[in-house]
Structures are given as structure tokens and as C-alpha cells.
Amino acid sequence: MQRLKNIQKTFLIFFLFLFTTQAFSQQEPILPIVKSSIKGINIYGKTVDNQTRCQHWHSDLDVIAIKFKCCEKYYPCFSCHEEEADHKPQVWPKSEFDSKAILCGVCGSELTISEYQASGNTCPNCTAAFNPGCSKHYHLYFETEN
Ligand SMILES: [Zn+2]
Ligand SMILES: [Zn+2]
Ligand SMILES: [Zn+2]
């Protein structure tokens, strides 16, 4: 009988321990994660707001996301895809430049790659200014001559 009581006591202590550790773990601070989406379109990667800015690119002008050919998901930049996707990126071939693959973070409209490249870095829908520096990185997303 004494032995049974001891076992009960051990269990009680064990459950108390479980309970208290759980209560403590719930008090730990939760890191802020911005789950970014624009007009129902999810933006993946390390987003910091709901206009497609990310931890790598977050100036006033950094308001586009690119849909990656490999996974058909929008990411704010190449680095976001590199750090979060579990696969190598694929670029859009020229034959598919009529695919909607650019998202304006200001108005949420989707542009085709051709529309984007002809836009003069201004959203044709809401006239938001895009970062002209992005053109230096076209080769990371789109098939180019060289
Ligand atoms: Zn991908
Ligand atoms: Zn990024
Ligand atoms: Zn726009």
C-alpha cells in the first residue's frame, strides 16, 4: 500500500512538472512574424510589411514581388527564395514572358514579365514607382541574352 502511494506521489510530481514547464514556455516572447499577403495573394520569404518589402530590400521603391518559375510562389527577392525555398531557383524562359509573374505591392495588380519590363519602373495600374535597380538582377529571375 505504501508503495502504491509512492508511485502516485511520483506521478503527481511528474504532472506538476509538466504543467509548470508548459505554463512557462507559453510566457516566452513570440518573435514577430509578418505573414504578408496582398489582395489574397501570399508573399513568401522574409517579408517585413504588406507591400512586398523584405529584410533584404526595404526602401520606399521596393514594392514588387516576383513569382518564381520553379514553385509559382511570390517572393520579394532572390535572397528570400534562396533562404526559404528548399530547391534551386528557375528563371522564366523568354517564351513565357506573357505570364503574370510580377506583383505590385502597392495596388496588388499582377503584371506579365513583358508588361513589367516595358513599364519604365512605374506600375501601369497605380503609378507607384518601382526600384529601377531591380533591372541589374533580371538575370536571376528571367532568361536574358547573356
Ligand atoms: Zn522556387
Ligand atoms: Zn528578400
Ligand atoms: Zn500598382
Any overview of this molecule?
The protein has 146 residues and is of the alpha+beta class. It folds into two domains: 1-30; 36-141, no CATH class. Helices cover 29% and strands 14% of the residues. The protein is built from four helices and six strands. A four-stranded antiparallel beta sheet has the order 4-3-5-6. Strand 3 (64-67) and strand 4 form a beta hairpin. Residues 25-32 have low confidence and may be disordered. The site of one zinc ion has 7 residues, from loops.
Q: Could you name the ranges where pLDDT drops below 50 across 5 or more consecutive residues?
A: 25-32
Structural class: alpha+beta
Label the overall shape.
Answer: elongated
Q: Give the distinct bound molecules.
A: zinc ion
Cα end-to-end separation: 84 Å
Overall average residue pLDDT: 87
Order of helices and strands: HEEEEHEEHH
Report strand %: 5-15%
**Tell me about the biggest sheet?**
4 strands, antiparallel
Give the count of helical stretches: 4
Helical amount: 25-40%
Output the radius of gyration. 24 Å
Strand order of the largest sheet: 4-3-5-6
Whole-number tally of structural domains: 2
Q: Tally the beta strands.
A: 6
What are the defining features of this structure?
146 residues; alpha+beta; 4 helices; elongated; binds zinc ion
Can you summarize this structure?
The protein is an alpha+beta fold and 146 residues long. It is 29% helix and 14% strand.
